[in-house]
Design brief:
heterodimer; A: 433 residues; mainly alpha; 3 domains; 2 strands; 1% strand; B: 202 residues; alpha/beta; five-stranded parallel beta sheet; 34% helix; transmembrane helix (chain A)
């Protein structure tokens, strides 16, 4: 115990913690340097703080309301589950997760306010909204929710994320509504999520957690893509164009991610006000990529599991071309919706289309090969695993390349051809061939 | 010759799983692989499917080297291996339609086909909700429902009840009668005795 304490208090951990804390504090002590980096020569946006607060509250709500705290390992359930301890454990976990999210929301809001400044009339409403939303999030997450309520819960973050588009009185209205909802949850009896979870739920939560941990440990991001849910269309694969039907079914069976897509769209509309030095084409492209990738998870499953791929007799090329056609519909819809904020520009259309190809390239890449680390000595560093970084960046590389072309070259036939070339490369060339 | 192998050997570490193995299985014949756990049955099946390179020797499947990465070879060989899997969100009907409509020349996936596997009452239930035995039956249906010249089965009797094992025997017999080469690794002696023309005990 003494050795452990010595390691924690005096050892390398302390140095690491101090460095991280120091870095996190720099916006408050080197504000001018941060302003220069974030804003360049552009003026500050005093409403950026509230925009970030609302977005962070939306993301906090979404992540806590997944109720990832509801899990217990099979060993615990087998050998140490004879008292009331399981509910206490999960409630403690919930409180810890909630407090951490609250801290992060407060921090990112404070940093944004420090860099951009903060209009005085937003301070009371910002503080009130933070307090009541934090309370409502905790109260909602600790209750078990039947399926219809869960659907409604998914839509709540959209309300928060859209709030910055409204005028000041509407924010007070939102604060009042959140307060009312919190009061309802306090006084209306409900079942605790921790207490009502059965063994199957607990093990399911534990399995998901292990999958996430392993995926993060091995940087296997594709394993985190969402599984499909059954749909009530028994004849959906009957008829011609079965590959197209399969890809469409893969998209529809993940329709629950539509709220996340909406949330991303609102974030993309808002973020250029927070980080104005970054061009709109980057936000549009990256937003389209991350909004679309959950819908391509079925393609990723086929690439990762040979036993699933054997159910389809088509060639890989046919599959990729079909997938990119379907995903193009999503990314062009993305361009059309975000166009209300950015305008319907050709560069926006091109980068959104390129995002579809980048998604296909990402989800069809093989699993990470740790034999190909490609370690390269870098001056000032020890070694950089360039090969591993290249594998991780496969997919996003074409999007970043295309966005850079659109950002830095004037729009011309050559620019369009360059983007079209990247599109073709992403679809036609199998990653790591 | 459907399946032939000359002087085939696979080494695992310092030991050889099998060595100097010669095979010659003609169309319409069944080769059964038997042996204790870890004796190399699945490894030999992987060599025949081209997902594992043998340490020495060579394999020919209908005159070509097996390579699962080549679409033409995948069309020729149908398999039930350790890595066979189901889409949890799709029903048996959707699985079979996906298969038969994407492989040219496949017969229609009709009610009768599901009835033979005992899955007709569960045709529209998502695979994630099926029992282990029903999932196995669906995987077996998937292996035989499309045209193939080679059928590789790795312990197909796993999770099947008595009726399921009888159906499995019928299924292998039917594949043989259609002229396919069947290679089956099994611990189920009744199956081996019923369907095998050749047996290799590893």
């Amino acid at each position: 115990m003494k050795t452990l304490l010595r390691n924690v208090i005096l050892g390398e951990w302390l140095v690491g913690y101090l460095m991280v804390i120091g870095l996190l504090c720099t916006p408050f002590f080197q504000t001018d340097s941060w302003r220069h980096t974030v804003l360049g020569s552009l003026p500050a946006q005093p409403t950026a703080g509230v925009a970030v607060l609302c977005l962070a509250l939306a993301l906090g709500w979404r992540s806590l309301l997944r109720r990832d705290f509801v899990w217990l390992g099979p060993a615990r359930l087998t050998w140490d589950d004879f008292g009331p301890g399981r509910v206490r454990t999960m409630n403690r976990r919930l409180l810890g997760g909630w407090a951490l999210r609250l801290l992060v929301v407060a921090y990112v809001t404070a940093v944004t306010a420090q860099v951009h400044g903060w209009r005085p009339e937003f301070v009371p409403v910002g503080c009130a909204l933070l307090a009541v939303t934090a309370a409502l999030t905790l109260l909602a997450a600790r209750r078990a929710a039947p399926a219809p309520v869960r659907w409604a819960e998914q839509a709540v973050p959209l309300l928060f994320a859209a709030a910055p588009l409204a005028v000041l009185p509407a924010w007070w209205g939102l604060t009042a509504a959140v307060t009312l909802a919190a009061l309802v949850l306090v006084f209306v009896p409900g079942r605790s999520a921790a207490a009502s979870a059965g063994r199957v739920d607990l093990l399911e939560g534990w399995n998901s957690r292990v999958l996430r941990q392993v995926s993060v440990a091995f940087m296997d991001v594709m394993a985190l893509l969402p599984p499909g849910r059954p749909l009530p269309f028994p004849r959906s694969l009957s008829g011609r164009f079965v590959v197209l039907r399969f890809v469409l079914l893969g998209v529809l069976s993940r329709a629950r991610y539509l709220t996340l897509t909406g949330l991303l769209a609102l974030a993309v509309v808002m973020l250029p006000h927070v980080l104005p030095a970054t061009g709109a084409v980057w936000w549009l492209g990256l937003g389209a990529f991350f909004a679309t990738i959950p819908y391509a998870a079925a393609l990723s499953e086929l690439s990762r599991v040979p036993g699933l791929r054997r159910w389809l007799g088509c060639t890989d090329m046919e599959l990729r071309v079909t997938a990119v056609c379907v995903l193009l519909v999503i990314t062009i819809a993305w361009w059309a919706v975000t166009g209300f904020a950015f305008g319907w520009t050709l560069s926006g259309l091109l980068v959104s289309a390129l995002a579809a190809a980048a998604v296909v390239r990402t989800v069809t890449k093989p699993m990470l090969d740790f034999d190909k680390l490609g370690e390269v000595a870098v001056p000032g560093m020890t070694v950089a695993p360039v090969g591993l970084i290249a594998q991780l960046a496969t997919g996003l590389d074409v999007l970043v390349g295309g966005a850079a072309v659109l950002q830095f070259l004037p729009m011309s036939a050559i620019t369009v051809l360059a983007v079209a070339g990247l599109f073709g490369f992403a679809v036609w060339r199998r990653p790591h061939e | 010759m459907g399946v032939s192998a000359n002087n085939l050997g696979v080494r695992a570490g310092e030991d050889w799983l099998f060595r100097e193995l010669d095979l010659a299985v003609a169309e319409g014949e069944c080769l059964a692989l038997t042996g204790s756990n870890g004796s190399g049955k699945s490894t030999l099946l992987r060599c025949l499917y081209g997902t594992q390179r043998p340490t020495e020797g060579q394999v020919r499947i209908f005159g070509q080297a097996p390579d699962e990465r080549v679409p033409e070879f995948r069309r020729l060989a149908s398999v039930l291996m350790d890595d066979s899997a189901l889409f949890d969100e799709l029903s048996p009907r959707q699985h079979l339609e996906l298969l038969t409509r994407s492989f040219p020349g496949s017969p229609e996936a009709d009610q009768e086909l599901f009835a033979t596997a005992g899955l007709d009452a569960r045709m529209d239930v998502p695979a994630g909700k099926l029992s282990a035995g029903q999932r196995r039956r669906l995987l077996l249906l998937g292996a035989i429902a499309r045209p193939h010249q080679l059928l590789l089965l790795d312990e197909p009797e796993r999770a099947l009840d008595a009726a399921g094992r009888e159906w499995l025997v019928e299924l292998v017999r039917a594949a043989k009668s259609r002229g396919a080469v069947v290679v089956v690794a099994s611990h189920h002696l009744a199956l081996v005795e019923d369907v095998a023309d050749w047996t290799v005990d590893l």
